[in-house]
Every structure is written in structure tokens, then in C-alpha cells.
């Protein structure tokens, strides 16, 4: 495991299902860090973030690809992540940049490991190797309460399992009942408990 404290930059990842407001939070945070604090910020995403990663993203998300096996899916995400880390994230961190990434390793654990049933250990194994053990300093996980629609649950964890506070803009533009299912968020919760420590959860209502 890499000691995050020894690298010049800071690596923050944003996780959650579709429509949970990750993009809104990343945009707001990056603007605040750059304009108000004068920080050098890189905003990136997965799958993608590099030329090869974008091509793999197209393959993974295109209807033309058809159904692929869950193992193939997990390996393609890991391949995109390996290139992303090598060409984009690690160089930025070594240059002292604050990196904000829309999804990362924990997404594979929640989607492929938990929801697809491949298991956390298998996903961790390929991603340890793919990223050369590059862990985020902080992980923010968002979810919409599917019943209320206007509530955002926030799971906050970091490398040592410590809690961190964050200002959250409630997601009020998603109709009730149209949020993601609880399975993916459940995957994030289980992953956090096993990987970091007992996570904290906050609920913000609009």
C-alpha cells in the first residue's frame, strides 16, 4: 500500500450511482479550490480519462458491444484504470496537483464485485496490480434516496478510515422513485467496512 502522505498531490474520488450529483459536486469543489484557494486542480473520470481509456469506455458503454461477461467487464475497467493512473493521475499527483476523479477503484468493487457477484477480493487483486496500489486520499460516495428523491446520502471515508466533513448541494432535480437501486450503494457500504473502517453516513434533504 502506498503511503499517501509522501506524495505532493492530493487524490480525491467521487463515487455513487447514476444521477446522484457527483458531477455537480466535483464542479463546485474544483471551482472553489481553484478560484478561492488558488490550487492547481485536475478533474478526470472513469472509465476514460486517457485516449485508451476513452476507447475502452466506448466499448464498455456502447450498445453495439452487446453483453460481455462480467469477468471481461471487470478486466476492461481495470485496463482503462491502469492507463489512466499511468498517463494521467500519477503524473499529476507527483507534480503536486489536486486530482478530483469521478469514480475509481471503489466503483469496480461496488458494481462488479458486489452487484455482479464477482467478489471484492477478485476486484482488489486485479486493481492492486493495475494501479500499482494507488489509493485515493479521500473517497466521497453519494446516493439518492429512491423513495424521497430529494435526499442525498453521503458516505465519507479516507485512507485511514477517518471521517471527513463536506458541504453537499442536495440533489433536488431528480423525481422521487427515479434514483438508483440500493444494491450499488450497499456495495459501497460493504466495501468501505472491509477496506477502510466503519464509515459514517450523512443525509441531506432539499
Q: TL;DR?
A:
The chain is α/β, with parallel strands linked by helices. It has helices spanning 22-36, 51-61, 70-94, 105-115, 120-131, 182-195, and strands at residues 10-16, 41-45, 98-102, 138-144, 151-158, 200-205.
Q: Could you characterize what this model shows?
A:
- A hairpin with a 6-residue loop joins strand 4 (138-144) and strand 5 (151-158).
- This protein has helices at 22-36, 51-61, 70-94, 105-115, 120-131, 182-195; strands at residues 10-16, 41-45, 98-102, 138-144, 151-158, 200-205.
- With 206 residues, it is an alpha/beta fold.
- The protein has 6 helices and 6 strands, in the order βαβααβααββαβ.
How helix-rich are the residues, as a percent range? 40-55%
Low-pLDDT segments = 159-181, 197-206
> Pairing-aware structural class of the strands and helices?
alpha/beta
Quick check: average pLDDT? Answer: 78
Largest β sheet strand count, sense and barrel closure: 6 strands, mixed
Which geometry do the CA atoms define? globular
What topology does this entry show?
Layout: E1 10-16, H1 22-36, E2 41-45, H2 51-61, H3 70-94, E3 98-102, H4 105-115, H5 120-131, E4 138-144, E5 151-158, H6 182-195, E6 200-205
Parallel strand pairs: 1-3, 1-4, 2-3
Antiparallel strand pairs: 4-5, 5-6
Helix pairs in contact: 2-3, 3-4, 3-5, 4-5, 4-6
Amino acid at each position: 500500500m502506498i503511503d499517501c502522505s509522501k506524495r505532493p498531490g492530493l487524490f480525491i474520488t467521487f463515487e455513487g450511482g447514476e444521477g446522484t450529483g457527483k458531477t455537480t459536486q466535483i464542479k463546485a469543489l474544483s471551482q472553489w479550490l481553484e478560484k478561492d484557494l488558488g490550487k492547481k486542480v485536475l478533474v478526470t473520470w472513469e472509465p476514460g480519462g486517457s485516449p485508451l481509456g476513452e476507447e475502452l469506455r466506448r466499448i464498455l458503454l456502447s450498445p453495439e458491444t452487446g453483453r460481455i461477461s462480467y469477468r471481461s467487464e471487470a478486466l476492461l475497467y481495470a485496463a482503462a484504470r491502469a492507463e489512466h493512473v499511468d498517463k494521467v493521475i500519477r503524473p499529476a499527483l507527483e507534480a503536486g496537483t489536486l486530482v478530483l476523479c469521478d469514480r475509481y477503484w471503489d466503483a469496480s468493487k461496488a458494481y462488479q464485485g458486489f452487484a455482479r457477484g464477482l467478489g471484492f477480493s477478485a476486484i482488489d487483486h486485479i486493481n492492486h496490480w493495475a494501479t500499482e496500489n494507488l489509493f485515493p486520499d479521500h473517497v466521497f460516495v453519494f446516493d439518492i434516496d429512491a423513495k424521497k428523491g430529494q435526499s442525498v446520502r453521503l458516505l465519507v471515508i479516507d485512507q485511514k478510515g477517518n471521517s471527513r466533513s463536506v458541504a453537499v448541494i442536495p440533489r433536488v432535480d431528480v423525481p422521487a422513485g427515479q434514483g438508483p437501486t440500493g444494491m450499488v450503494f450497499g456495495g459501497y457500504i460493504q466495501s468501505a467496512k472491509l477496506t477502510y473502517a466503519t464509515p459514517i453516513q450523512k443525509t441531506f434533504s432539499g
